[in-house]
């Protein structure tokens, strides 16, 4: 038998790569069993797919605390690996919040003021408290305890409460919302997500920067850079209505007391965090 | 939407630079080893390197399954059972455990359909669940998966080439290469299996191995370095010609 013309040990990197690729085409795996039939039998015997629970029981709370701890650990990883950052943001998401990256965004008309942002009807804080079945959280930081306007958006059992703060010297007007700050809270569910869309440029780099951060004990995201679109709410299932989107300024998203909160303004990350960390359930 | 599509993933060749002159092995592999396409083409299957396109049929099946249509879910399982079983096999190493893990994963997926994000590709979501189920099942006594070469394919290739001697050698070297891969440590074997034998993208490989996407490339590179060391050692000791 003739000797081989070359040794495998002498292959270049590219040759080894190619050799393995070709080898992969010849690999024989054990025959795939018929999983479909057995899985089908098992799921017929089990309850139908469950709908995300609205109430957050103790076990889930513990899970979320654990998730927050994991998120905190991931921050170091995220700084090193931009791809990982995107992946993790996509996957962990906040309950009720979906963050998607898109190559192109349609150009929505910036909304001038609170009333035009699709936040619902104007109410007083007390009226809002009576209308929703969760304790409304309010910032305790001076200047933020009494929002200028309160809005309530109800749809079925879902409710979203928004505080609008007018522009003032310490709270510059956001070019996008036309107000100083917008603080929104709602009970996050996975089946009716609140969608944020970030943008990539032609090279796939993120124009909208997404950072995972901790707010108090909860997981959060800081979204800054290029304006991004946001769908305020979604209807049944994941059917989001495109016409509801609008541009968003800098946004801090976080979880607290089973609610998802969102602060949108022209403020910096540190200023936004100071407001967020002062948020408490009012007496 | 680009979530989950494995964007930015280099093709395997890119990892080592693209300026590859035609070489002995390339010419050798190209000369007669034109293998038939895999007979089972699974949904969403394509070469690693690009995103996996959204499959409309998948989306439809998921939606129907969410509304309780078990037949739709069964069709979805049928579409992905092969890659699911193979991924599980690479992780647990025995067909019985791989069967159990893949089955468990599909049942879990069904129960967690509400967590699936509408409009995302199904395959990476399923593979992540499969890998988690398989890792849970993997025990300290887990075995290496036993992989073999397709004897029928080798035979066909030799016929096509019309030069049995060349292909006897080629088959021998392919066998040597596979033996060297199977002699690597577990984590090296898994990354090579994911990338080359299961044809997973880097993003999918990260999901399956439970590591960050950014580390797949370096893991793969280290595995190839150790593979090369082993192949060079074979030369020093006279190689492995026993098949």
Q: Secondary structure elements and their pairing?
A:
The complex is a heterodimer of chains A (283) and B (243).
Chain A: H1 13-26, E1 27-28, H2 35-45, H3 58-80, H4 82-92, E2 97-102, E3 121-123, H5 125-131, E4 137-139, E5 149-155, E6 158-165, E7 181-186, E8 194-199, E9 208-215, E10 218-225, E11 228-231, E12 246-248, E13 250-256, E14 259-265, H6 269-276, E15 279-281
Parallel strand pairs in A: 2-8
Antiparallel strand pairs in A: 3-5, 4-15, 5-6, 6-7, 7-14, 8-11, 9-10, 10-13, 11-12, 13-14
Helix pairs in contact in A: 3-4
Chain B: H1 24-32, H2 56-66, H3 70-92, H4 95-111, H5 122-137, E1 148-149, H6 151-161, H7 164-182, H8 186-197, H9 202-209, H10 213-236
Helix pairs in contact in B: 2-3, 3-4, 3-5, 4-5, 5-9, 6-7, 8-9, 8-10, 9-10
Oligomer: heterodimer
Largest sheet of chain B: none
Cα shape of chain A: elongated
Pattern of helices and strands of chain B? HHHHHEHHHHH
Task: Please mark out the parts of chain A with pLDDT under 50 across 5 or more consecutive residues, or reply none.
Answer: 50-92, 108-112, 232-245
- The spatial strand order of the largest sheet of chain A comes to 3-5-6-7-14-13-10-9
Number of helices of chain A: 6
Relative helix content of chain B: 55-70%
The CA-CA distance between the termini of chain A, in Å, is 90 Å
Report the end-to-end length of chain B measured between terminal Cα atoms.
48 Å
Derived structural class of chain B? mainly alpha
Number of strands of chain B: 1
> How many alpha or pi helices of chain B?
10
**CA radius of gyration of chain B:** 19 Å
Mean pLDDT of chain B: 71
- SS elements, strand count of chain A: 15
Strand content of chain B: under 5%
SS-based class of chain A? alpha+beta
Strand content of chain A: 25-35%
Overview of the structural elements:
The complex is a heterodimer of chains A (283) and B (243). Chain A has 283 residues and is an alpha+beta fold. Chain A is built from 6 helices and 15 strands. Chain A has helices at 13-26, 35-45, 58-80, 82-92, 125-131, 269-276, and strands spanning 27-28, 97-102, 121-123, 137-139, 149-155, 158-165, 181-186, 194-199, 208-215, 218-225, 228-231, 246-248, 250-256, 259-265, 279-281. In chain A, the strands form 3 sheets. Chain A has an 8-stranded antiparallel beta sheet with strand order 3-5-6-7-14-13-10-9, with helices on both faces. In chain A, strands 2-8-11-12 form a 4-stranded mixed beta sheet. The longest helix of chain A has 23 residues, at 58-80. Chain A starts with 12 loop residues before the first helix and ends with a strand. By secondary structure, chain B is mostly helical. Chain B is built from 10 helices and 1 strand. Chain B has helices spanning 24-32, 56-66, 70-92, 95-111, 122-137, 151-161, 164-182, 186-197, 202-209, 213-236; one strand spanning 148-149. In chain B, helix 3 (70-92) crosses helix 5 (122-137) and helix 8 (186-197) crosses helix 10 (213-236). The relative contact order of chain B is 0.13. Chains A and B meet through helix 1, strand 1, helix 2, helix 4 and strand 2 of A and helix 1, helix 3, helix 4, strand 1 and helix 7 of B. Strand 1 of chain A pairs antiparallel with strand 1 of chain B, so a sheet runs across the interface.
């Amino acid at each position: 038998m003739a000797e081989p013309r070359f040794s495998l040990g002498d292959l270049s990197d590219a040759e080894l790569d190619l050799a393995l690729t070709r080898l992969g085409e010849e690999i024989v795996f054990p025959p795939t069993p018929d999983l479909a039939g057995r899985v089908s039998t098992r799921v017929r015997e089990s309850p139908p797919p469950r709908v995300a629970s609205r109430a957050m029981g103790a076990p889930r709370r513990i899970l979320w605390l654990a998730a927050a701890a994991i998120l905190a650990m991931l921050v170091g990883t995220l700084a090193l690996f931009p791809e990982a950052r995107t992946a993790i943001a996509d996957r962990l998401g906040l309950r009720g919040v979906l963050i998607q990256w898109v190559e192109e965004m349609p150009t929505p008309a910036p909304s001038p003021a609170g009333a035009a942002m699709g936040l619902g009807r104007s109410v007083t804080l007390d009226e809002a408290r009576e209308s929703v079945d969760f304790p409304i959280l309010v910032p305790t930081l001076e200047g933020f305890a009494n929002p200028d306007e309160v809005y309530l958006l109800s749809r079925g059992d879902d409710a979203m409460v928004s505080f609008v703060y007018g522009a003032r010297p310490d709270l510059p007007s956001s070019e996008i919302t036309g107000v100083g700050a917008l603080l929104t809270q709602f009970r996050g569910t996975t089946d009716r997500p609140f969608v944020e869309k970030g943008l990539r440029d032609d090279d796939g780099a993120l124009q909208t920067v997404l950072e995972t951060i901790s707010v108090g004990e909860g997981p959060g995201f800081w979204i800054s850079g290029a304006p991004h679109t946001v769908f305020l709410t979604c209807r049944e299932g994941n059917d989001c209505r495109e016409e509801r989107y609008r541009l968003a300024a800098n946004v801090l998203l976080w979880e607290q007391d089973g609610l998802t909160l969102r602060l949108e303004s022209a403020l910096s990350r540190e200023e936004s965090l100071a407001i967020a960390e002062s948020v408490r359930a009012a007496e | 939407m680009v979530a989950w599509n494995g964007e930015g993933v280099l093709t395997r060749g890119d990892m080592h630079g693209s300026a590859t002159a035609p070489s002995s092995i390339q010419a050798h592999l190209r000369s007669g080893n034109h293998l038939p396409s895999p007979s089972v083409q699974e949904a969403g299957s394509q070469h690693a390197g690009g995103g996996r396109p959204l499959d409309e049929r998948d989306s439809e099946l998921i939606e129907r399954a969410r509304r309780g249509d078990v037949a739709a879910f069964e069709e979805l399982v049928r579409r992905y059972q092969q890659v699911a079983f193979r991924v599980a096999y690479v992780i647990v190493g025995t067909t019985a455990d791989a069967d159990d893990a893949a089955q468990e994963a599909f049942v879990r997926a069904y129960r967690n359909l509400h967590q699936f994000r509408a409009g995302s590709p199904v395959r990476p979501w399923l593979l992540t669940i499969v890998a988690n189920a398989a890792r849970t099942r993997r025990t300290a006594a887990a075995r290496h998966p036993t992989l073999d070469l397709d004897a029928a394919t080798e035979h066909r290739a030799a016929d096509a080439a019309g030069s049995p001697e060349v292909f006897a050698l080629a088959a021998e070297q392919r066998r040597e290469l596979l033996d060297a891969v199977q002699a690597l440590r577990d984590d090296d074997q898994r990354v090579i299996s994911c990338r080359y034998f299961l044809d997973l993208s880097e993003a999918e490989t990260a999901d399956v191995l439970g590591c960050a996407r950014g580390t797949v490339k370096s893991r793969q590179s280290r595995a190839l370095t150790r593979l090369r060391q082993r192949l060079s050692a074979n030369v020093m000791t006279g190689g492995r010609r026993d098949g």
